[in-house]
Design brief:
five-stranded mixed β-sheet; 17 strands; disordered N terminus
């Protein structure tokens, strides 16, 4: 008798949302559970699927009743904002929903993922009105802590955020040793109207190579060091939903680029073709600025300069779309020096992730730069060893990069089970 009761209790728990782990064979009754396609790059999808058991997650968008698109962006306080867009399909095409979940910089990974899952669950409620699973839901309200609420409304730092960090990386073997150290400081204050950002970065890289002459047995050791320091600040003001003005300021040095010291700044203006608040789904901007800077070079340049003041103009076009079928990002950047328009650079960059047909996705990115603005190149030239170690900037008229990938998936459309064994 006890054994029978235990079996019945186990079956009851299995079919009760909130207690169950999804079975590898989902229910055959379409009225019981909602079928969902999860579209979230960089999310812990395994955790999401394991924690939501009133949903049949499918791996094919066309087989889903709801397409859930999750996009992520950093917040001013160092946290992460998740925008959850629920798009109904087929019989639910008329339904849609949108939630925003924000995690704090102080949240642990566990707190962040639990909070995200809680919001994801809430967003499915409007789509469950015709599902049997809705009958098994209840509502719990934890109440409001007035003290905590008051603390959240009072910000003693007045939206200022400070970060200090650093890291080191090293490796070695019998004939070579590598050491890389980085330090950084971040200061920012971001409100709906103003944005201020200050970045300080320093990088030190040391590569040591040991060679032995086979005939004489003499060992030779060569050391290559590159150092880079950079201070960058941004101040932006929001004029409207479509217009912003601001300025950039930077100073620094780079041993690789033959620059002992540089300092410069620029006023800039930006137009957004869509309201800025729609950035999570679509963003198209055009920015223009004129940059004035002073350079003090380590060695005399190929143009005979040891120091100079330069001005250049820059036009930057960016577009980014996130759609149910995938995402697209594009950028076109053009700039030239005002004292000589032939000294210019033109950059093209394009990325796309697209579902071609059911079960067939492609991913690719490509970029190309036309380069004729390397004014800081040293007149002393580059040795073969410096070229191999990439410790000195070299003349080039172009630069390109790219990647291509695809994914073909077939078989069961369901994707509920999480199994981390082995």
């Amino acid at each position: 008798m006890l054994k029978t009761v235990t079996i019945l209790a186990g079956l009851l728990i299995t079919f009760t949302p909130g207690y169950a782990q999804s079975d590898s064979t989902p229910t055959s009754d379409p009225n019981t559970l909602l079928t969902v396609y999860l579209d979230c790059r960089g999310c812990n999808s395994s955790f999401i699927r394991s924690e939501i058991d009133f949903i049949n997650f499918v791996r094919d968008q066309s087989a889903a009743e709801v397409h859930l698109i999750i996009t992520r962006n950093g917040t001013a306080s160092g946290g992460t904002q998740y925008r959850l867009n629920y798009l109904g399909q087929d019989d639910l095409e008329a339904l849609s929903n949108e939630f925003i979940f924000t995690s704090y910089d102080s949240d642990t990974a566990e707190e962040e993922r639990n909070g995200l899952v809680r919001y994801i669950k809430l967003g499915f409620i409007p789509f469950l009105s015709h599902k049997d699973a809705l009958q098994r839901f209840d509502i719990l309200y934890s109440g409001t802590d007035n003290t905590t609420a008051q603390q959240l409304q009072t910000d003693k730092w007045n939206s200022w955020i400070f970060e200090i960090g650093g890291n080191t990386w090293f490796s070695g073997e019998e004939t070579q040793r590598n050491l890389n150290m980085n330090g950084r400081v971040r200061v920012r204050r971001i409100t709906d109207e103003w944005k201020f950002q200050l970045n300080l970065d320093e990088n030190y890289s040391r590569n040591t190579y040991t060679t032995t002459d086979d005939e004489t047995g003499v060992t030779d050791e060569e050391v290559y060091i590159t150092e880079r320091r950079n201070v960058f600040s941004l101040l932006a003001y929001s004029l409207s939903d479509h217009w912003s003005v601001g300025s950039y300021f930077s100073l620094g040095s780079s041993s690789r680029d033959n620059i002992d010291f540089r300092i410069g700044g620029t006023p800039t203006i930006e137009y957004s073709f869509y309201p800025y608040r729609e950035f999570a789904r679509r963003e198209v901007t055009l920015r223009y600025g004129v940059y004035s800077s002073f350079f003090d070079y380590t060695d005399r340049t190929i143009y005979g300069q040891t120091d100079e003041v330069l001005m250049r103009q820059e036009l930057d076009f960016r577009a980014e779309y996130t759609k149910p079928w995938g995402s697209v990002e594009a950028r076109i950047l053009g700039r030239n020096y005002l004292h000589d328009f032939s000294k210019k650079r033109l950059l093209f960059d394009f990325e796309m992730a697209k579902r071609i047909v059911r079960g067939f996705d492609v991913f690719f990115s490509v970029g190309y730069s036309i380069i004729n603005d390397q004014l800081s190149i040293s007149a002393e030239g580059v040795t073969d060893k410096e070229a191999i170690a990439n410790t000195r900037q070299q003349l080039t008229s172009y630069e390109y990069w790219g990647s291509v990938g695809f994914e073909i998936t077939f078989g069961s459309i369901y994707d509920n089970v999480v199994n981390t064994r082995l």
